[in-house]
From TrEMBL, chain A:
Keywords of the record: Amino-acid transport, Cell membrane, Membrane, Transmembrane, Transmembrane helix, Transport
Highest classification ranks of the organism: Bacteria, Pseudomonadati, Pseudomonadota, Alphaproteobacteria, Hyphomicrobiales
GO biological process: amino acid transport
Cross-referenced PANTHER family: ABC TRANSPORTER ATP-BINDING PROTEIN (PTHR11795:SF442), BRANCHED-CHAIN AMINO ACID TRANSPORT SYSTEM PERMEASE PROTEIN LIVH (PTHR11795)
Family: Belongs to the binding-protein-dependent transport system permease family. LivHM subfamily.
UniProt name for this protein: ABC transporter permease
InterPro entries in alphabetical order: ABC_transp_permease, BCAA_transport_permease, LivM-like
UniProt KW Cell membrane keyword: yes
Subcellular location: Cell membrane
UniProtKB/TrEMBL annotation, chain B:
GO molecular function: ATP binding; ATP hydrolysis activity; L-isoleucine transmembrane transporter activity; L-phenylalanine transmembrane transporter activity; L-valine transmembrane transporter activity
Top-rank taxon: Bacteria
Domain ABC transporter residues, every copy: 8-249
Pfam family, one: ABC_tran
Entry's family note: Belongs to the ABC transporter superfamily.
UniProt protein name: ABC transporter ATP-binding protein
UniProt source species: Bradyrhizobium niftali
Annotated GO CC locations: plasma membrane
TrEMBL record, chain C:
Protein name, per record: ABC transporter substrate-binding protein
Superkingdom, natural source: Bacteria
Similarity section: Belongs to the leucine-binding protein family.
UniProt cross-references to Gene3D superfamilies, sorted A to Z: 3.40.50.2300
Leader sequence residues: 1-25
Organism: Bradyrhizobium niftali
Keywords: Amino-acid transport, Signal, Transport
Domain Leucine-binding protein, residue spans: 40-366
GO biological process per UniProt: amino acid transport
């Protein structure tokens, strides 16, 4: 019995640190609608700074002072980030802020290694909380007890802050209805900045408080960020109490789950999230989101099919791309193949995200399923390559059909999170089911047959498929189905009122996007000759999001450009420097600031401006830019 | 001799929220080509009633029949398929599409081509879309982005969209809300004209009494969830109960219905 | 506009990089790939090790008179990126062979690439047995003692313990799973009387140490096998110490004696664990002294195990290249098979039968000295003594 009590308390201690970070994320999202990917980075910086300070200042005062000082210092960094970076892009398309915070995260991961060195750092134990307390023969670390108390205390303070202060009232009002606060004449800028600072403070505090139990290292952010998102979503976005309950739920399920299924930790949070979202689509304590009102002035130029001149230009670009084998070496061709494959991947997500308005955070699942489909067919059934390429993507199609059915019942961030949960579930199956998938050692020896083996042949294959897929999806954008899909994105209410079964349209789009991603994955398996769980991992899903956002989420062809730029730059940087994350992150942040509509979005704006100022009859000037469309 | 069923027949429609009756036992009917106004003070249950007709909301009891077919509790899209067009109090349009595309989506849906992946949507029923836009006086705006339109034009566009499935019945929730007086008259005149030409039944709710009395063939009046009067504009105008309700509106109903979420 | 210029520059450089071929024909180039950005704590000492080796080799006149050049690439911890890097090294840098890799799945990915493209690959650090056995191939050799060898070394010591009730804690991925499986198998062969009372599988890098420690303690084992490392190990040790998990229990632990993993524990190092590792401070052999002196002189820092592996990887590569007298992969394989050479740990041989080197490891016990973790009572275990019989190896390895 004593054991179960102690296990319960241990779970509560884990919950406390999770709650601190999650509450910060929840507050930030609630008010600013920013999906703050950098939250984990702030958590990590908090731990690093607290480590440095607590090594320097001894004694109890030194230690606790260091913790608080670290959190305050990071909050200040947060304020700077908000004012310098995020403020510029609040009016950018939804999720664009995610791109900015993603770029920051990449930079921070390299920066902490540059500043604090590569080694794991083990900080001091907390003065006064070094030992354990005996509980009927079981030991409970006293620091755990401290955390168990701290969790509810922070919850209480936050509650008072939100209920009893004018600032808190404004924050709650803004969480419910942003426009209303703007209408009340509140200085929104400072409200956002202060909210961001408080959220970051909580994250950094959560990180700083880890130093007596954890090692401080440069991958801490990734370890926590996904889990924290999950907790926030289970609890209900914007709900502090929800974050607390969800943190406790997840931690306790884990503490007791490992007694029965020792391997459950790897997948538990995602299972819980999937179940919660299917049963309660807005999380445990969340409320249905008010239908998003479009910010005035943000109206997008209506999409149009290419004019015949533009078609010619696109064709010419394709022909030029096809001549690459005439002058480039094998390496450039293989890189070219990889880029072509990522174009497929990016346009498939674009179809779902830009055309359908459904931003999937787990799109790599279908890419990876396509790759595994090929690997199974080639290695187990021994089928010829062409058959594998045709049938392999069907695994992605099936996965998308099953998961998509549940996912499209939700929308917005909840949709994103459910897709993430499904992707993680697929990932952990690939990772754990060693007898079938080979686990993380993957499936090897999936090499192309002779006719496609040479780099130039494979390049033509990849380029051809990429071109076909891009054309097909583009044609679909301007098909009756594409119109219906855009209709469901623009107004669900109106769509339903003109007889459109929105869920079925969205489900179909999900399956199309998943199958297309699977085609990319199938080619990728042959390009690399092997398949690994990485191929359906979070980082690949994030890559796809970044490509679409970078290119311009409101454009038809942004994904193509975004994929080419991001992938080429990524490969080049990884080859050139160990600090590729720092440079790439910096580049992304720069793009976000300079091109808040994405690369193609910006080019389109420029082209439009030029079209308006230049006299009629000189459209030739704008041609090179339009060929990007 | 068989009598054709009325276009719309509503019987004993009832809905309550947490013990408060938002709509109680409302019955009425509507003939083809008739323009019927549903009025009542704030909180009278107009919107609740309206939403139960178009499928946004399910009644606790009672029936809605369209051309003799039971539509109670059906989804909005199913009701639309039976030939009901509708407009919203706050316009709902596809902001990133052009005016013509907005109409084309409705035509695509009407033509059951929603899952057509390969056709060309820009060419889909282009002529018909143009005709509908001409009909509502939006012909010159076809290529404009919908998000740029003035509010009155959006209302017209909604009307064109609502007409895309050759409806037998139009449900218009506060069609002139938020419009300038001049535009109101234009829009309702247009609506009435189209309704009479095509023999479409129109049910609309409205705040503006001038609009109501000028354009409605018949008026039904709701108060505190029940039907208190029904008749021609003249009859309703002279109904003492209606007069009492409208004179006392500000005093009585605002206070009483602040809690009830009926409108 | 600035961003656009950067993009154009990047694209241009990519193309140019693809087309540029090595200018210096008289140099011998070795391609090297490792997870520098993902695992800097392990790959930094490794890099220092191989840089030292390159310097020594060139100071001694290079390889058959030609200068040795190592072209190093980061793989970011992703198998797919490692293959891109391998491709670049082979296709556009024209390297004579590939070396490196840390993570098992990356080692396997590069090994498969090498097999497909017929390139010689010397795997430096990946531990999985599959590299030389179940997924072994003609083109792939490995330096570091494999999972199986480390397990066998630990079992030798562990089987002498009186403990009968054992629990295991291992990261939930192939490395952890196969380490536990081999350890269990070899242990049970030697000691049929032992019982396995609990197993914990925390996700790699994400251990929730409190509940894990508590769960293991509840099973009340007499001895514990640990396979976690890095930050997970730190958390496990801290929670275990506070909760008294290790009190009165024997602990056998993979790799914990390597400075990479032991040093961060500082004064919290648990005492008396039986570990494999690298006690650089207590190895007194001429070969190691020479290495240690050179390393400390160059870097003013002590070596980690990674330094040894990095150093010996390039030394081995150079020895193979020198013997082959050619960069032809078939000749390199012929030269490498059965080749013996000196190393800081004594002579090692690349076995013909499975291409595994006989580099060994030190087994000893952890102890606390001046607030730091050290290995005591350590002895070197030759790799050759901890490999299965040739007949068994033949069965494990696919015919090529």
């Amino acid at each position: 019995m004593a054991f179960y009590v102690v296990q319960l308390l241990t779970g509560l201690a884990s919950a406390a640190s999770l709650f601190l970070v999650a509450s910060g994320l929840s507050i930030i999202f609630g008010v600013t609608r920013i999906v703050n990917f950098a939250h984990g980075a702030f958590y990590m910086i908090g731990a690093y700074i607290a480590f440095t300070l607590s090594e320097r200042f001894s004694g109890a005062f030194g230690f606790w002072g260091s913790i608080v000082a670290a959190a305050l210092a990071v909050a200040l960094i947060g304020v700077i980030v908000e004012m310098v970076l995020l403020r510029r892009i609040y009016h950018a398309p939804e999720l664009f802020q995610l791109l900015a915070t993603f770029g920051l995260t990449l930079m921070v991961e390299d920066l902490v290694v540059l500043i604090w060195g590569p080694d794991d750092l083990v900080g001091r134990r907390a003065p006064g909380f070094k030992g354990a307390i005996d509980f009927f023969g079981q030991n409970i670390p006293s620091y755990d007890l401290f955390l168990i108390v701290l969790g509810p205390v922070v919850l209480g303070i936050l509650w008072l802050l939100f209920q009893r202060t004018r600032w808190g009232v404004l924050v709650r009002a803004a969480t419910q209805d942003r426009d209303m606060v703007a209408a009340l004449g509140v200085n929104q800028k400072w409200l956002f900045t202060s909210v961001f600072a408080v959220g970051v403070f909580l994250a950094a505090l959560g990180g700083a408080l880890q130093i007596p139990r954890d090692a401080v290292h440069h991958a801490m952010d990734l370890r926590i960020i996904v889990e924290v998102f999950v907790v926030v979503v289970i609890g209900g976005l914007g709900s502090i109490v929800g974050a607390f309950v969800a943190a406790v739920l997840v931690s306790e399920l884990n503490a007791f789950g490992i007694l029965i299924f020792p391997k459950i930790s790897i997948i538990l949070v995602f299972l819980v999230m999937a179940v919660v979202l299917i049963v309660r689509p807005w999380g445990l304590f969340g409320k249905p989101e008010a239908p998003a009102r479009r910010t005035p002035g943000l109206t997008v130029n209506p999409w149009r099919p290419l004019t015949s001149n533009e078609r010619l230009a696109a064709l010419a670009t394709l022909v030029i791309a096809a001549t690459l084998p005439l002058f480039a070496g094998n390496y450039a061709l293989t890189v070219g193949s990889e880029i072509a494959i990522f174009v497929i991947f990016a346009v498939s997500l674009h179809f779902l995200m830009s055309v359908g308005g459904l931003a999937s955070f787990g799109h790599a699942a279908y890419f990876g399923l396509g790759a595994y489909g090929v690997a199974f067919l080639a290695k187990m059934a021994g089928l010829p390559m062409i058959v594998c390429l045709l049938l392999g993507p069907l695994l992605g199609c099936m996965g998308a059909a099953v998961f998509g059915f549940f996912a499209v019942q939700l929308s917005g961030v909840y949709f994103a999170m459910l897709t993430l949960a499904f992707a993680q579930i697929v990932w952990s199956i690939a990772f754990q089911w060693v007898s079938v998938t080979g686990g993380d050692n993957g499936i090897l020896g999936v090499w192309p047959e002779k006719w496609a083996a040479s780099p130039s042949h494979f390049y033509w294959l990849a380029l051809g498929v990429a071109a076909l897929v891009t054309i097909a999806l583009r044609a679909m954008v301007f098909s009756p189905f594409g119109y219906a899909l855009r209709a469901t994105r623009d107004s669900l209410l109106r769509s339903e009122a003109i007889g459109i079964n929105a869920k079925r349209i969205q489900w179909t789009a999900f399956v199309i996007a998943g199958t297309t991603a699977g085609i990319g994955g199938a080619l990728f398996a042959y390009l690399k000759g092997s398949v690994f769980p990485d191929n359906l991992g979070i980082s690949l899903s994030v890559d796809a999001l970044v490509m679409v956002l970078l290119g311009g989420v409101e454009t038809v062809s942004g994904a193509v450009i975004g994929a080419i730029v991001y992938k080429a730059l990524n490969i080049w940087l990884v080859s050139q420097t160990d600090l590729s994350k720092l440079v790439l992150g910096g580049f992304i942040v720069l793009i976000v600031v300079v091109f808040p509509k994405g690369i193609v979005g910006m080019l389109e704006m420029l082209a439009q401006r030029r079209r308006k100022t230049s006299p009629p009859g000189s459209p030739l000037l704008a041609k090179p830019i339009e060929s990007a469309e | 001799m068989s009598v054709a069923p009325p276009l719309l027949a509503v019987e004993g429609l009832t809905k309550s929220y947490g013990g408060i009756h938002a709509v109680r036992g409302v019955s009425f009917s509507l003939r083809a080509g008739e323009i019927l106004a549903l009025i009542g003070p704030n909180g009278a249950g107009k919107s609740t009633c309206f939403d139960m007709l178009n499928g946004q909301n399910k009644p606790d009891s009672g029936h809605v029949r369209l051309l003799g077919e039971e539509t109670t509790g059906k989804k909005p899209r199913e009701i639309w398929r039976l030939g009901v067009g509708r407009t919203f109090q706050i316009t709902a349009t596809f902001a990133t599409m052009t005016v013509r595309e907005n109409v084309q989506v409705a035509l695509i849906s009407h033509g059951k081509q929603l899952f057509n992946l390969w056709g060309s949507a820009p060419k889909f029923d282009r002529g018909e879309a143009g005709r509908l836009l001409e009909l509502v006086g939006m012909g010159g705006y076809a290529d404009r982005p919908c998000g740029e339109l003035a509010y009155g034009d959006l209302k017209r566009l909604e009307l064109a969209v609502a007409l895309a499935n050759e409806p037998k019945l139009l449900l218009m929730d506060e069609p002139t809300a938020g419009m300038a007086p001049r535009e109101r008259v234009d829009l309702m005149r247009l609506t009435a004209q189209i309704a009479r030409e095509k023999s479409i039944g129109v049910l609309f709710t409205e705040h503006d009494m001038d609009v109501v009395f000028e354009h409605a063939d018949r008026i039904i009046v709701l108060n505190r969830g029940t039907l208190i009067a029904e008749g021609s504009p003249a009859e309703v105008r002279s109904n003492p109960q209606v007069q009492a309700v409208y004179l006392g509106e500000g005093l009585l109903y605002d206070a009483e219905h602040r809690e009830g979420a009926s409108t | 506009m600035r961003a656009r210029t950067i993009f154009v520059g990047a694209a241009f450089a990519l193309l140019a990089g693809g087309m540029a071929h090595s200018a210096m024909a008289q140099d011998i180039k070795i391609g090297e790939i490792n997870s520098y950005s993902l695992l800097p704590a392990f790959t930094e000492p490794y890099r220092k090790g191989w840089q030292l080796a390159v310097e020594e080799i060139n100071a001694a006149g290079g390889i058959n008179g030609k200068k040795l050049v190592v072209v190093s690439k980061d793989d970011g911890g992703k198998p797919a990126d490692a293959q891109t890097a391998a491709n670049e090294l082979v296709s556009s840098e024209g390297v004579a062979m590939l070396t490196g890799t840390f993570l098992s799945n990356i080692g396997l990915a590069v090994s498969d690439f090498a097999n497909q493209k017929k390139v010689f690959f010397l795997a430096a650090e990946p531990l999985t047995d599959a590299v030389t056995w179940s997924k072994g191939n003609k083109y792939t050799f490995r330096l570091r003692p494999s999972n199986y060898m480390q397990a066998a070394m630990l079992v030798e010591a562990a089987s002498k313990l009186p403990a009968k009730r054992w629990a295991t804690i291992a990261p939930n991925y192939e490395y952890g799973q196969s380490a536990v499986a081999v350890f269990k198998k070899l242990m049970s062969e030697k000691r049929p009387d032992i019982q396995w009372v609990d197993e914990q599988w925390p996700p790699q890098g994400k251990i929730d140490a409190g509940p894990v420690v508590q769960a293991v303690a509840a099973a009340n084992p007499e001895a514990i096998l640990n396979v976690t490392f890095g930050a997970d190990l730190v958390k496990l040790v801290r929670e275990g110490n506070t909760r008294g998990l290790f009190k009165g229990r024997e602990v056998v632990s993979f790799l914990t004696g390597e400075p990479e993993y032991l040093d961060p524990l500082k004064d919290e190092t648990p005492e008396g664990w039986i570990v494999t590792g690298y006690p650089w401070y207590s190895i007194k052999t001429p070969e190691h002294d020479a290495f240690l002196k050179a390393y400390q002189a160059k870097y003013n820092d002590y070596p980690r195990l990674g330094s040894i592996v990095g150093y010996q990887t390039i030394k081995s590569a150079a020895a193979i290249l020198a013997k082959a007298g050619s960069t032809d992969p078939e000749k390199l394989i012929a030269a490498a098979e059965g080749l013996s050479m000196p190393s800081p740990f004594g002579e090692i041989t690349f076995r013909k039968i499975d291409h595994q080197s006989t580099l060994g490891a030190y087994v000893g016990k952890t102890a606390l000295k001046d607030g730091k973790g050290v290995m005591v009572d350590s002895s070197y275990k030759k790799g050759a003594d901890y490999l299965p019989s040739d007949a068994e190896v033949e069965k494990l390895r696919p015919k090529d």
